[in-house]
Amino acid sequence: MAGLQLRSVDKTYPNGFKAVHGIDLDIEDGEFMVLVGPSGCAKSTTLRMIAGLETITGGEVKIGDTIVNDLAPGKRGIAMVFQNYALYPHMKVTRNLDFGLRLKRRPKDEIARATSEVSHTLEIEELLDRLPKELSGGQAQRVAVGRALIKSPEVFLFDEPLSNLDAKLRASMRVRITDLHKRLKEEGRSATVVYVTHDQVEAMTMGDRICVMKDGNIMQVADPVTLYQKPANAFVGGFIGMPEMNLAAATLSLEDDGKIRMGDQVIAVEPELARRLTHAGGAITFGIRPQHLELVEPGTPNAFEGVVKIVEFMGHEVNLHVDIEGNSFICVVTSDHFDRATKAGDRLSFHPIARSIHVFDRKTGLNASLGE
Questions:
Q1: In the 8-state DSSP scheme, what is residue 366?
Q2: How large is the angle between the packed helices 108-121 and 137-149, nearest 10 degrees?
Q3: pLDDT reported for residue 268
Q4: Which residue in 56, 81, 58, 80 sits closest to 70, CA to CA?
Q5: Rounded to whole angstroms, what are the CA distances from 368 to 144, 185, 261, 357, 360?
Q6: Which of 162, 218, 308, 360 is surrounded by the most beta carbons within 10 Å?
Q7: One domain for residues 185 and 258
Q8: Crossing angle for the helix pair 137-149 and 167-186, to the nearest 10 degrees
């Protein structure tokens, strides 16, 4: 087992484009770390530098106690699972699983035992005599995971492994991979995982911690609950959460215990929050999650009014898309508390739950609500 360290890691391409900007990241031994962010944020590039598939132009990558910058991928003690599975099409599942061990000339009984254990763990025993073309997407992905698992690597690297699966299979494979990681840790086996995805649902449900990236920079590293409740900046607040956080330009006056003005509408903030916002007066970005907007009666104090644009019935919830002072907001209400007569054009009132309000510095994007 081994941890992983990135220190001031850069990636600059020959044309001068700098993809990764001196990032630092510590991944603990046995941790499930997820790299998440929008397309082009360099999460896959970072993973490929860890794997040795991309050269590092600055800084260092350490796996365990070894700096691996100049080591070939095969000598880094890693195993990688790709988006496209990368199975050998002419080999049956058995050979796809044990090919790496055969290259290393491991004893036949050891190979047979390892293949049996891995196929049992991933429930693919009945697939061993099939060719990859005879597998479904979920089956092929399990074989790809098995091929990585059989190597007993120091670190597992996953590069968007579920993006080619349908929604139901993605949900199933999320559970399988998370459960596999848990069992490996319980058995004292190598279980350090770096997992790249653009899907925040995967990130939030699978990761012990999550590294949110943007434009080759790390925006925040934290556990899922912290990312959701205490985003370090407006980008993380807007990226993490489903639906995404409502963000709007506003002004903050710290007089009279603090008031947030959005257009012609004003709400007061809690005294405790006002005390944390001592240096945040003036232009701000107001943030509130859709689940933290309460539908209230017209005239209720500390509420915004808005015009309904779209009503999305999601089953147990309803998403109300609302225009508030020219800003697009979403309010999530339970189906039980939703008036089915509500339609586009209706004017409704929404009360932001005071303890869930976020105030971001307009210039830096930092979350001033967290205090010093």
A1: B
A2: 140
A3: 87
A4: 56
A5: 44, 38, 16, 11, 5
A6: 360
A7: no
A8: 20
Angstrom distance (rounded) from CA 88 to CA 268: 62
Instruction: Print the domain residue range for 298.
Output: 245-370
The letter for the amino acid at 199 is D
Q: pLDDT by residue (tens digit) across 134-191?
A: 999 889 989 999 999 998 899 999 999 988 888 888 898 899 999 999 988 888 887 8
Pick from 164, 149, 140, 53: nearest CA to 91: 140
Query: Distance (Å, rounded) from C-alpha 12 to C-alpha 160?
Result: 23
Q: What is the total count of domains within the chain?
A: 2
Q: Is residue 350 in some structural domain?
A: yes
| pLDDT at 90 exceeding the cut of 90 | yes
Secondary structure class of 62 (helix, strand, coil): strand
Say if residue 251 is in the same domain as residue 116. Answer: no
195-228 residue pLDDT tens: 999 999 999 999 999 999 999 999 999 999 999 9
The upper half-sphere exposure of residue 283, i.e. CA atoms within 13 Å in the direction of its Cβ, equals 5
Residue 306 CA to residue 322 CA, distance in Å, equals 6
Q: What is the pTM of this model?
A: 0.91
Burial of 346 (0-12, 13-18, 19+ CB in 10 A): middle
